[in-house]
Write a structure and sequence with these properties.
Helix content is 73%, strand content 0%. It has 18 helices and no strands. The protein has one domain: Amino acid/polyamine transporter I (Up-down Bundle), CATH 1.20.1740.10. Its main location: membrane. It holds the Pfam family AA_permease_2.
Length: 443
């Protein structure tokens, strides 16, 4: 039996993701753990006008989301951006590198989140070494991922509700502080000293745009979404807008309650809002932050395993990574491999520079997808699908290029190293496939 025949006869993924589950998946992935530190970084860039770069970044994210909505509903296959690149550019190398960028981003992000889980937030309750906690945490995430997509997303429903409630709590507490006459609402229009509005918006939008990253991972669930052509666009745009509204409210309240310089100096800026408001134990907010971290790691590893599965189905990675559990129909080999890689990264220690470089690579993924949607306009399909206004992917390409110009040289250098590793993996995979064909007995 040939590999292609085996692939065709192997069971596919189970379509168990409904519209509400997909909405909460995207919302949970976009909100993630980053927002709990994001406000401080934005305060350093934009002063009290934190809300403005958040609004600009929301617009940028919606532009690229339109391209994903068109391509996912046009080609509802697991693999996301890598599949789109393969169809658009007809180059296994380009497709592999796009997929590799996504994998590197996802696995490294999960490793960083696992370390964060074992760090300061957990130390409020238990004083344990971060690395062993991170490894156990990743194993538990893998076990939940292995159990099934429906079970994983049900857990996401609970965790998303908790992390969202934490942000809503910040907004409510901020309103209470302002209602009693404390704080300074005028700070929301103040910039850092000697900073222009243009510089504040561009520098802040670069950070804020990263807070919306996560929506692209939903493309890897295309084969598991019920009625994907109708459900996906609604869930995608709805989740992004919902996250944007929450971000904007937090961005207005936080600098009005706490001075921007104090937010910038804190590693837990939203905790400062809770502290000023009083009445809520800090341990409660630390627990919410831990849930947010856990949710981010779960959703990221779901993406990484489904992307690995999709690339294996496309012949970009070894076929063994496309195997699924007969009963659960989850990509168990892909889950094991991506978890092991995340564990190795977590055990190595410092991931800050690598994580920043991976975000740079995500911009290349977005650039590839936005170009692909234009290239594939000439490829007609029989079924109806979402179609973005042509100006949207064009504007999205411009935003990606602008954000790429803001990256630091050291991150470009590290990106080059990562791409070199990806190229080696691609060549090894192709050589193994060619050798298997040559060694196969003729009939």
């Amino acid at each position: 039996m040939t590999t292609d025949t085996a692939t065709e006869r192997s069971p596919g993924l189970r379509r168990a993701v409904t519209g509400p589950l997909l909405f909460l998946f995207i919302l949970g992935d976009v909100l993630g753990a980053g927002v709990y530190a994001l406000v401080g970084e934005l305060g350093a860039e934009a002063g009290g006008a934190i809300w403005l770069p958040l609004l600009v970044a929301l617009g940028m994210a919606l532009l690229t989301a339109a391209s994903y909505a068109e391509l996912v509903t046009k080609y509802p296959k697991a693999g996301g951006s890598a599949v789109f690149a393969q169809r658009a550019y007809k180059s296994p190398l380009v497709s592999f590198l796009v997929g590799f960028c996504m994998l590197a981003a996802g696995v490294t992000s999960a490793a960083g989140l696992s370390l964060a889980f074992g760090g300061d937030y957990l130390s409020v309750f238990l004083d344990l070494p971060a690395v062993p906690v991170a490894l156990v945490f990743l194993a538990l995430v893998a076990a939940l991922n292995m159990r099934g997509i429906q079970e994983s997303l049900r857990a996401n429903v609970v965790m998303t509700a908790i992390e969202l409630s934490g942000l809503v709590l910040v907004v409510i507490l901020g309103a209470v502080v302002l209602g009693r006459g404390d704080g300074d609402p005028g700070r929301v229009l103040e910039l850092p000293a000697e900073t222009s509005w243009a510089a504040a918006i561009l520098g802040g939008a670069l950070i804020a745009f990263y807070s919306f990253v996560g929506f692209e991972t939903s493309a890897n669930l295309a084969e598991e979404v019920t009625d994907v052509r109708r459900v996906y666009p609604r869930a995608l745009f709805g989740a992004l807008i919902a996250a944007g509204v929450v971000y904007l409210l937090v961005g207005l309240v936080a600098p009005a309650v706490v001075a921007p310089e104090d937010l910038a100096a804190s590693s837990g800026p939203l905790l400062e809002v809770v502290r000023v408001a009083g009445g809520v134990p800090l341990e409660v907010f630390s627990a919410v932050a831990l849930v947010a971290v856990a949710n981010g790691a779960l959703l990221t590893m779901i993406m990484a395993s489904r992307l690995t599965y999709g690339m294996a189905k496309e012949g970009l990675l070894p076929p063994v990574l496309g195997r699924v559990l007969p009963g659960r129909r989850t990509p168990w080999v892909a889950i094991v491999v991506t978890t092991v890689v995340a564990m190795v990264l977590a055990a190595t220690g410092e991931l800050v520079d690598l994580a920043s470089t991976v975000v740079l690579l995500l911009l290349f993924v977005f650039l590839s997808t936005n170009v692909a949607v234009l290239v594939l306009r000439r490829d007609r399909v029989e079924h109806e699908h979402f179609r973005a206004w042509t100006a949207l992917p064009v504007l999205a390409i411009v935003t990606c290029l602008v954000l790429l110009t803001q990256q630091e040289a050291r991150h470009w250098a590290l990106a080059g190293v990562l791409l070199a590793v990806g190229l080696v993996l691609h060549l090894v995979t192709r050589r193994s496939s060619r050798r298997a064909v040559e060694d196969a007995p003729t009939r």
